[in-house]
């Protein structure tokens, strides 16, 4: 087996009538089996080949997760094409750049995202064919007519292409056309491109990462050996399929292991999807989930608020139970003492009998565990979810690695780390081009193996800069601890730089504050050759109000309360290693959250630092204007008043 097309055939053979894809239709979920998926993808491919698409053509996909995405992409691969997955969070200009740069001959799009595509079609260097992959609706037809597109000419519906493909394969020339399709499939090799995945552009212009059949097959095979996923399990895909983590796990590991993926009901748009998520979890009863810190953090917050609303008695049982569960587990790897386990047993057991089971039901009745990726998962989230019985195991990867590099798992995990490295991937921590770091020493994470991208599309310079001597220089910093766990500490290019030229990881500081602060929702550490480090932070207003006991305070009193909260990490034993010179001395409070629509966080919920810096440059300058680290600024006073925290 040397292509993901062959993997699909094997999945269809092994798991045949078992469900692989699940969409919400009407009031219930309907599923498509592994064998049906193989058949439908051939029909889709036949329609594309009949319309002149050929090996080497690139086709973009802009949609929320749905069965037609998966069938469409596999169909493109069977037609010899490559897929260009696009984030639904992109602006029209960002979509246009990717369509032009990838030379996309067509774009598969859902109704929710059609308006963005329609907006840029007239500006595209080469106008792509449009394929609508969500069901026909009156509103969709109206939007198509408004865009001036002609159905059957420059626009087609997915269902119509499936019907066309079936007709051509079963018609009078069906045997000859089937032979042609088989010939195209035979021509696809392990080093041909499956996807061109564009970087989010957090550190500059986006680059198109070319991932091959070899990359995906090896990554899926290796990752499945680290995190054991059972045949017959099911999962609700909460992440977008353009997210490389969801793409590899959902499309290839699930296919390899016989797992069904259901999709969140996104009919009505992104807000409807968020509203539908809790209901969809109960409807599908997933065995495990893929998540990102922003999503799991939102679950944790809502759980805490929901239990608090039950009253002091229940909340007390809950909080003591969580604290006891965290103490009993320790770091998840080093066994805690018998005394620690015994003295914390009763409060944990009481909460596990009365409170935790109801919280677990939020994820459905069959949940075993979750795997987190996309960004670093704070230790306090790992500890919390483990304590209530739905552990989230942190993983780490890069799209350039297809993407999984390492992961924690039920078998072997340590909180605060990103887990153990997948079997056949070589990972080294390098001080420089030729010097490898010692165990526990921080350096750049460098990988080598069959998961590593063959390069960036139409960007030989970036390829040469990133892949040197067959090794991928990730730009991420980290170390391997004495037990073989990889710990990621930050981005090399995102380092704080003090006035004297010294450098430090902002993520280290941010994680410390997030894990110890009660009042901060989001934050960015900042120092670009300044006298001291500062923070740009959004505020958990409800937590501040609770701390104030409902009374109105002065703006300066609220700022002082937040200042003390932001400094809590200094006395925490886990963060005593952070040098005093890098501890934030002041901050700018922001009244509104960092939002995707403003580009301040990307589709994987990572902070886009340069955009946060540029958006709040006046507030940052205010921090340093007086020359002293005094957070009692006019900007902070205005922010706490806007949040309703002060008179």
Describe what you observe in this structure.
The structure is a single chain. With 647 residues, this protein is of the alpha/beta class. It folds into three domains: 4-225 and 240-257, Rossmann fold (3-Layer(aba) Sandwich), CATH 3.40.50; 287-492, Rossmann fold (3-Layer(aba) Sandwich), CATH 3.40.50.12780; 495-642, GMP Synthetase, Chain A, domain 3, CATH 3.30.300. The strands form seven sheets. A five-stranded parallel beta sheet has the order 4-3-5-6-7, sandwiched between helices. Strands 12-13-14-15-16 form a five-stranded mixed beta sheet. Strands 17, 18, 20, 21 and 22 form a five-stranded antiparallel beta sheet that branches. Helix 3 links the parallel strand 3 (58-62) and strand 4 (82-86). 48% of the residues are buried.
Secondary-structure map with pairings?
Elements: H1 4-15, E1 19-25, E2 28-33, H2 34-50, E3 58-62, H3 67-78, E4 82-86, H4 92-102, E5 104-109, H5 114-121, E6 129-132, H6 138-146, E7 155-157, H7 158-170, H8 174-187, E8 193-198, E9 208-212, H9 213-226, E10 234-237, H10 244-257, E11 260-263, H11 270-284, E12 288-291, H12 293-308, H13 312-329, H14 338-343, H15 345-354, H16 356-360, E13 369-372, H17 379-388, E14 392-397, E15 404-407, E16 420-421, E17 426-430, E18 443-448, E19 455-456, H18 460-466, E20 467-468, E21 471-480, E22 486-491, E23 496-498, E24 503-504, H19 506-516, E25 520-526, E26 528-530, E27 534-539, H20 541-547, H21 555-566, E28 586-590, H22 609-615, H23 617-625, H24 634-642
Parallel strand pairs: 1-11, 3-4, 3-5, 5-6, 6-7, 10-11, 12-13, 13-14, 23-26, 27-28
Antiparallel strand pairs: 1-2, 8-9, 9-19, 14-15, 15-16, 17-18, 18-21, 20-21, 21-22, 23-24, 25-27
């Amino acid at each position: 087996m040397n292509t993901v097309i062959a993997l699909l055939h094997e999945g269809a053979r092994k798991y045949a009538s078992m469900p692989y894809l699940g969409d919400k239709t009407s009031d219930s979920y309907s599923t498509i089996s592994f064998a049906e998926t193989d058949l439908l993808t051939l029909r889709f491919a036949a329609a594309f080949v009949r319309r002149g698409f050929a090996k080497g053509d690139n086709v973009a996909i802009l949609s929320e997760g749905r069965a037609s995405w998966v069938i469409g992409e596999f169909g493109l691969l069977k037609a010899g094409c490559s897929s260009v997955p696009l984030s639904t969070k992109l602006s029209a200009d960002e979509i246009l750049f990717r369509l032009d740069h990838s030379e996309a001959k067509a774009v598969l799009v859902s109704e929710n995202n059609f308006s963005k595509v329609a907006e840029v079609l007239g500006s595209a260097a080469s106008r792509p064919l449009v394929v609508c992959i969500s069901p026909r609706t009156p509103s969709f037809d109206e939007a198509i007519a408004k865009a001036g597109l002609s159905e059957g000419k420059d626009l087609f519906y997915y269902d119509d292409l499936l019907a066309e493909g079936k007709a051509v394969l079963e018609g009078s020339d069906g045997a000859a056309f089937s032979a042609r399709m088989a010939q195209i499939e035979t021509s696809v090799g392990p080093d041909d491109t499956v996807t061109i995945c564009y970087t989010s552009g957090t550190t500059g212009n986006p680059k198109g990462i070319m991932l091959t059949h070899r990359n995906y097959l090896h990554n899926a095979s290796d990752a499945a050996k680290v995190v054991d996923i059972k045949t017959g399990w099911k999962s609700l895909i909460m992440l977008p399929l353009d997210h490389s983590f969801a793409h590899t796990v959902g499309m290839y590991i699930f296919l390899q292991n016989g797992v069904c993926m259901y999709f969140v009901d996104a009919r009505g748009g992104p807000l409807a999807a968020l509203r539908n998520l809790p209901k969809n979890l109960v409807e599908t009863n997933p065995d495990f989930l893929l998540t990102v810190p922003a999503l799991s953090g939102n679950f944790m917050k809502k759980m805490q608020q929901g239990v608090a609303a039950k009253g002091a008695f229940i909340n007390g049982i809950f909080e003591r139970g969580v604290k006891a569960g965290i103490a009993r587990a320790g770091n998840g790897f080093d066994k805690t003492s018998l005394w620690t386990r015994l003295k914390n047993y009763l409060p944990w057991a009481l909460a596990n009998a009365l409170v935790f089971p109801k919280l677990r039901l939020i994820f459905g009745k069959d949940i075993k565990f979750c795997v987190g990726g996309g960004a670093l998962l704070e230790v306090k989230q790992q500890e919390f979810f483990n304590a209530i019985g739905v552990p989230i195991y942190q993983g780490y990867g890069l799209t350039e690695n297809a993407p999984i590099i390492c992961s924690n798992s039920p078998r072997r995990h340590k909180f605060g780390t990103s887990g153990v490295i997948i079997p056949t991937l070589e990972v080294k921590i390098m001080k420089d081009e030729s010097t490898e770091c010692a165990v526990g020493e921080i350096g750049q994470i460098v990988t080598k193996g069959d998961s590593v991208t063959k390069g960036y599309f139409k960007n030989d310079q970036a390829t040469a800069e990133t892949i040197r001597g067959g090794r991928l220089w990730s730009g991420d910093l980290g170390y391997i601890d004495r037990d073989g766990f990889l710990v990621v500490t930050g981005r090399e290019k995102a380092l704080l730089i003090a006035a004297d030229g010294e450098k430090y990881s902002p993520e280290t500081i941010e994680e410390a504050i997030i894990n110890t602060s009660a009042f901060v929702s989001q934050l960015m550490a900042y120092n670009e050759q300044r006298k001291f480090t500062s923070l740009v932070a959004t505020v958990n207003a409800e937590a501040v109000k609770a701390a104030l006991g409902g009374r109105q305070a002065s703006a300066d009193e609220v700022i002082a309360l937040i200042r003390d909260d932001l400094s809590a990490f200094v006395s925490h034993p886990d963060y005593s290693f952070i040098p005093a010179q890098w501890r934030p001395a002041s901050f700018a409070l922001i009244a509104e959250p960092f939002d995707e629509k403003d580009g301040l966080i990307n589709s994987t919920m990572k902070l886009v630092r340069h955009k946060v810096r540029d958006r709040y440059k006046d507030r940052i300058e205010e921090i340093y204007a007086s020359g002293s680290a005094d957070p009692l600024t006019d900007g902070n006073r205005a922010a706490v008043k806007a949040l309703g925290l002060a008179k």
